[in-house]
Specification:
The chain has 23 helices and 27 strands. With about 725 residues, it is of the alpha+beta class. Among the domains are: about 330-470, 2-Layer Sandwich (Alpha-Beta Plaits); about 480-730, TIM Barrel (Alpha-Beta Barrel). α14 packs across α15 (about 530-540) and α16 (about 545-565) runs parallel beside α17. The chain is flat, with a radius of gyration of 35 Å. Its main location: membrane. It is found in: Cell membrane. It is a multi-pass membrane protein.
Length: about 725
């Protein structure tokens, strides 16, 4: 009994000693940290003054240039745009400085090489035009396309602001102006704006304004309170001090607004390891010694338990942890589902299965490593949205299953949408089906099959809703399968034929081109609507075979007319986005063109705007190949909802087909006219031809003439027609 008491007393004494030393060391550390806080606050104030002084010199120098230009204008007696530009170029010849440029009151900027752009929308220009000397955030030069900073000051003439003068700085130049050594380079310095975006930092010379946010960085590293405190302090333009942790290390930071610079804030940070390394070492040694003393007493007891727990954890991980996602396996999901059904048989919930459309192409194109990362991303994003009592697992490959307590369509669409975008830049589309569990005693495999059956209804469709299982699904699947077999038979029996709709010059009524469309004429001579079979072909993948059949018939039509010495004009051919997943698609096209000996300039490859938008990188490479071969590229449905002017910059489009919606009379007709005018003007400047679709009335034609669009396609001139009918007017060349 006494031995037991002694052992307890010894353990208690060790624990008391541990606690005493711990609090003593904490007290010493707090004294050290208090001194650091005072010193760091002084340092950041000094740094601010140094940075402000350097930048003020640059602003003053630019202001002196502004005054010299004003003097020249005073001598000329004029301050209009031409006089301003002339005075600036004269000054540059005497004082060469490629970084300078001026802007008149309308925002027209003139550079030292004589070039000009508009900077009317730039914030630094607007502030200077209001009389505020300022330094911009990091922005993109409209001349070089490279990142830059700009110092901007107003120019006065007869006490009126007539324009601004700016000097450009590269990120490296601005970094050199603002960078300071802090605690023998062990500390770090950042300059941020009021939104928290890093403009300049000592740890690297370049930052991405869209992603490098100091507030967000603190928050993501577990310093949520510090992030909120800093954001509030900057919002109130107050100086302050904060403590954070990064990778387990404590960091002291002081921050202050740079009053002389619009919307700039200086942050200086120092790790505790750089403050007093010797004192920290002593503290750590005491901690180590004490931990060793206490640890030895518990080692023997814990070794066996740790070994046993490790073995159990390994077995559990093998059975229940997915090696790809790090989440649940289907075995673990089955166990959780059984437990959930037993605990709540009256409200068993819903099963949702989903998979990534054409995921095999992701693996083939990007590699399995990227594919695995995407699967982990999907799992993590879905897991973030799980509620208590819900469960998630990867079944196999790209197939996932979810147990849900609530299955409102809005929630399900939101869950899937959250994981569509990823760091690998691959746009994902899902096929999902939901089964409401009606009988908790039903076999789990049957439940999964029903959810999967619902998903199969929408398989392969690009725009789809999440499908909920019902008994009608079996009937619909039978009908769909019958239609699929009919389409396959139609392809075999040569019932899919090309129809042609002319593109017409509205001034001369000359045929300048045509679009070929697929039509289904049955053996009984009945014309079936494209709406009956095109969506099914897209869904089942038959569209790729159908497209190639229409393509080959079009080539044959062109070959026939070339042999008859008919002056041929280009024909545009639609291709589904599914072709873009085929690495051999380009070779298939060119091989057939070569086989029929068709001049490439007579073929126009037509892709929808949404296909280009969703497959930007693939399309960019593909269109370059087409152009090198001599083919033309047309963007269909431009302005239908996905427009991105960047696409016109990055992808060499030859023809824009403007969506018919711009011709329709609506409450926003005035805005539509402005947009149509802008598109026509932009296309002309970019040397892109414009074709207006859906032209059905003389009013549509007059609207086209008003905005300089002269190629029309629509029922006003001609409906899509069979090859024989089109062949006659194709030879005549005029309607």
């Amino acid at each position: 009994m006494s031995k037991r008491l002694s052992r307890v007393a010894l353990i208690a004494l060790i624990l008391l000693l541990f606690i005493a030393v711990f609090f003593l060391m904490r007290y010493v550390q707090n004294l050290l940290y208090s001194d650091v806080r005072i010193n760091l606050t002084e340092v950041v104030t000094q740094n601010k003054d140094v940075v402000t002084s350097k930048l003020k010199v640059e602003v003053n120098n630019l202001d002196n240039v502004s005054k010299q230009l004003t003097d020249r204008l005073s001598q000329e007696g004029s301050a209009d745009g031409n006089a301003l530009k002339s005075a600036f170029l004269s000054y540059i010849r005497e004082n060469p400085d490629p970084g300078l440029f001026i802007a008149d009151g309308a925002g027209n900027a003139y550079f030292t090489d004589g070039s000009s752009v508009s900077v009317a929308g730039r914030k630094y220009f607007r502030l200077a035009l209001e009389g505020v000397q300022n330094i911009s955030d990091k922005t993109i030069s409209r001349i070089t396309g490279e990142e830059m900073f700009a110092i901007s000051v107003p120019m006065y003439f007869k006490n009126q602001i007539i324009g601004t003068i700016q000097k450009q700085y590269t990120p490296e130049e601005m970094y050199n102006l603002c960078s300071l050594s802090l605690f023998s380079d062990q500390g770090s310095m950042y300059i941020i704006n009021s939104q928290g975006y890093i403009l300049i930092g000592s740890e690297q010379e370049e930052y991405n304004k869209e992603s490098d946010n100091y507030f967000r960085s603190l928050y993501q590293k577990g310093n949520q309170e510090a992030s909120r405190k800093l954001e509030q302090g900057i919002k109130n333009e107050q100086a302050g001090f904060m403590e954070t942790t990064e990778d387990g290390e404590r960091i002291f930071s002081a921050y202050t607004p740079v009053e002389e610079i619009h919307d700039w804030y200086l942050i200086s940070s120092i790790p505790t390891s750089a403050v007093s390394p010797n004192a920290n070492m002593v503290v750590k040694m005491f901690y180590v010694i004490l931990c060793v003393v206490v640890g030895v007493l518990g080692v023997i007891m814990f070794v066996f338990l740790a070994y046993k727990n490790r073995q159990q954890a390994n077995l559990r991980r093998i059975a229940f942890v997915d090696t790809v996602t790090g989440g649940n396996t289907f075995n673990k999901f089955t166990v959780d589902l059984q437990a959930a059904l037993a605990a709540n048989p009256e409200h068993p919930g819903y099963l949702m299965t989903f998979d990534v459309d054409n995921f095999k192409y992701v693996n083939n194109y990007y590699g399995f490593d990227v594919g695995d990362k995407i699967l982990r991303h999907i799992y993590d994003k879905m897991a973030e949205q799980m509620k208590p009592g819900e469960s998630l697992a990867r079944i196999s490959g790209d197939h996932f299953i979810v147990l849900l307590q609530e299955a409102a369509p809005e929630r399900l669409n939101g869950m899937l949408k959250a994981s569509m975008e990823n760091d690998q830049g691959v746009m994902l589309y899902y096929t999902a089906g939901v089964y409401e569990i009606a009988d908790p005693d039903e076999s789990i495999s049957l439940m999964v099959d029903k959810a999967s059956a619902a998903a199969q209804v929408n398989k392969g469709m690009m725009r789809k809703e999440i499908a909920f299982y019902s008994v009608q699904f079996d009937e619909q699947m039978i009908e769909s399968e019958q239609l699929k077999r009919s389409v396959e038979q139609a392809l075999t029996n040569d019932e899919i034929v090309p129809f042609f709709q002319p593109k017409v010059n509205i001034n001369t009524r000359e045929i300048v081109g045509a679009e070929v469309l697929a039509r289904w004429i049955t053996r009984e001579g009945r014309l079936r609507s494209p709406a009956e079979f095109i969506p099914l072909c897209e869904k089942t993948g038959l569209i790729t075979e159908l497209d190639m059949i229409i393509f080959e018939k079009t080539l044959a039509f062109l070959r026939m007319n070339l042999d008859e010495k008919v002056p041929c004009v280009p024909i545009s051919i639609n291709f589904s986005r599914l072709h873009l997943l085929d690495d051999g698609f380009f070779d298939k096209i060119t091989r057939r063109i070569h086989q029929y000996n068709i001049p490439p300039e007579l073929i126009e490859i037509e892709l929808t705007e949404s296909a280009i938008f969703d497959n930007h990188e693939i399309i960019s490479e593909f269109t370059n190949q087409l152009h090198q071969y001599g083919l033309q590229i047309s963007m269909d449905d431009f302005g239908s909802g996905y427009s991105s002017l960047n696409m016109l910059k990055d992808i060499p489009i030859d023809v824009l087909k403007i969506d018919r919606a711009f011709l329709e009379e609506t409450s926003d007709s005035k805005k539509q006219r402005v947009i149509l005018s802008a598109i026509a003007h932009m296309a002309k400047r970019l040397d892109i031809r414009v074709v207006v679709e859906g032209v059905e009335t003389i009013e549509n034609v007059n609207l086209m003439k008003e905005f300089g669009c002269y190629i029309a396609q629509g029922y006003y001139f001609a409906k899509p027609m069979d090859e024989e009918s089109f062949g006659k007017i194709y030879k005549e060349g005029i309607l």
